[in-house]
Structure formats: structure tokens, C-alpha cells
What we know:
The chain has 157 residues and is of the alpha+beta class. It has one domain: CATH 3.90.470.20. It is 22% helix and 26% strand. The chain has three helices and eight strands, in the order βββββαααβββ. It has helices at 54-61, 64-71, 78-96; strands at 4-6, 12-14, 21-27, 30-36, 42-47, 116-121, 124-129, 154-156. The strands form three sheets. Strands 5-7-6-8 form a four-stranded antiparallel β-sheet. A two-stranded antiparallel ribbon has the order 1-2. Strands 3-4 form a two-stranded antiparallel ribbon. The longest helix is centred in the middle third of the chain and has 19 residues, at 78-96. The mean pLDDT is 87.
Amino acid sequence: MPEIIYSEQGKPGFADHYPLWFSVSHCEDDIALIVSDEGDVGCSLEHIRAQDNWRTLANAVFSSAEHAELENEAPDNQLAAFWRIWTRKGAIVKQRGAHSWQIVSIDSAAHALHSVSQCQIASLSLAVCTATPFALTAAAVHSVNDASGEKLSAHPQ
């Protein structure tokens, strides 16, 4: 296996122009890994959970189109929509090898600019941004287990 090196922005990759790209994300005890032979990739994983400041955070970093997407959801679905948008933005940032503060400048609703796919598995929101179109589905997720080892069901979005 080739050496892992880091870009100036901190994005890991393989040395010597090895033709595989990867991205890792984690949240609490869960981890996601995507590997591609088609170009840079990014993934983002978050638990859908309430936070006191999620609306403030959305106001600070979401584009007007992302706000519209959030507001078009039923009130009971807005928290899950927040995490769906957040992980989508995070996957794009990681795919580009950008700094986390650049999340503000990314409009994840501009679908023509990104190849992003998402999936919700139980209380996990997972997004991937790939160099070429990729459909993230439950079948594409090889194994998702909770802390006890019990397999969770996948519900693609």
C-alpha cells in the first residue's frame, strides 16, 4: 500500500499519484469510508440529533436555496433536513480538499456543480461527493451496525 500524504489543506491521499482516492468521516462511534478509482471523493456522516443552535448554524452557513429546502420540509422533518444539507455540504468540502470554514461558500443545492448522493440509515445521515455520478443506496453501504453489533436497516433518500 502506498504512503498516505496530506495536502496543504490537510486532505489525506496516496503518495506517488496512486490512482485511488478516499475520504473518511466519523461521528461518535460510527465511521464512513469511501474509496474511488475515478477521482477525488468526499464523505460526511452525522447523527440526526437535536442541538440547541442548529437553526442559528443553518442561518450562518446555508445558502438561500438550502434555506428554502429546509423551510419546505414539514416542521417535524426539519431537523433531519438540516443534517441532510449539512452532510451534503461537508462531503463537497471534503471532496474539494477545502477548509471547513469554506462550508459557507458552498451551495450544495447547485446540483449542476456537484455529484452528491445521500442516504439515511436509521439516525445516520450519510453523504458522498464523487468525481463521477454515484447513487448512494442501502445496497452500496456494505455494513452498518450499531454499538451492540446489531445490523441497522437503510432507508435511502
